[in-house]
Design goal:
Length: about 300
């Protein structure tokens, strides 16, 4: 009888070039009760590669493998019951299988079960357990979990408050590329918690903005607008505010309107300024709302359009 592990290795090698042959090899190994083979068949049934898509059959195989102690199958079940790909959500089963996978040492499950306990998904909220699992995930090198540990240490959630450890975690997460952590480091620099002041904040905001984190783009625009930590550059500020305004952000819409209205960093255009004030008001910016209401009271709004039209 051929070794089932060898059959599975051959199946993996053939998966992309000859999925039907890969399926047959997984099936042969599965006849010997090999959990990795159950998992391989389940993956193919779930995706419809090498066979017809069969979600129910895939779940049976994942469950058989998971009950035999196969951590990746436990993880797959946890993900499935979270409601991915339109599946019916089952918070209790989701928590059960992610926790089984985490307890079996599967690092990808550490942040999943941490989040479940942090928010009380399918189980009572338990911030201490959440911190335990986020810490394990961070120690295993997960950058987003480093950010979560930093937050929990900074606020004393699920653990004792520890500002030094929070800063260390935020910095590690930021260096690893998490934009929320870069934003946090910028805030810490501006507040004097870490060295560098406005110049360091500018660098962190720019890094977060470069990967599309709009709150950082807005703050970066404000630093160029005010000349804080850098030379004042109204043209650059206008460009950055406009980028955020394109997402519908009320504060950015207001700043774009203000800069058009006063000709700051862009050619003066009061009509466009009024249009952006109207858009900002509709998006919830309080100053724009007050301004628009004042204009409506004092002027003929049939002559000056301030509703974005």
């Amino acid at each position: 009888m051929t070794d089932p592990a060898e059959l599975c290795e051959r199946a993996v090698r053939l998966y992309s070039t000859d999925p039907q042959a890969a399926y047959d090899l997984f099936a042969e190994a599965a006849q010997q009760g090999f959990p990795n083979a159950f998992f391989g068949l389940a993956e193919m049934k779930m995706s419809g590669v090498g066979t017809e898509r069969d979600v129910a059959g895939a779940l049976e195989l994942y469950t058989a493998a998971a009950e035999a102690g196969h951590p990746p199958s436990m993880y797959r079940l946890g993900a499935y019951y979270s409601g991915v790909d339109g599946a019916a959500e089952d918070p209790e089963r989701c928590r059960f299988w992610f926790e089984r996978a985490a307890n079996a040492g599967m690092e990808q499950a550490f942040p999943e079960i941490a989040g479940i306990y942090l928010y009380g998904y399918g189980t009572p909220q338990d911030t201490a357990k959440a911190f335990h699992w986020y810490r394990k995930a961070a120690d295993a090198g997960d950058p987003l979990s480093m950010f979560k540990v930093g937050y929990m240490c900074s606020e004393g959630v699920g653990t004792v408050k520890d500002t030094d450890e929070a800063v260390r975690m935020f910095r590690m997460s930021a260096v690893a590329g998490v934009p929320e952590a870069m934003f946090k480091m910028a805030t810490l620099a501006r507040d004097g918690v870490v060295p560098g002041g406005a110049k360091a904040a500018l660098t962190w905001y720019r890094s977060a903005s470069d990967v599309g984190f709009m709150p950082a783009t807005f703050n970066l625009a404000t630093m160029y607008y005010e000349g804080d930590g850098t030379e004042k550059d109204l043209k650059k500020a206008f460009e950055l505010y406009s980028r955020v305004a394109d997402t519908g952000d009320g504060d950015a819409l207001f700043m774009v309107g203000r800069m058009y209205f006063d000709g700051l960093g862009v050619e003066k255009d009061m009509v466009k300024g009024f249009e952006f004030f109207g858009k900002a008001a509709a998006a919830g910016n309080r100053i724009a709302q007050e301004f628009v209401e004042d204009i409506r009271r004092r002027q003929n709004t049939q002559l000056i359009h301030i509703d974005g039209s």
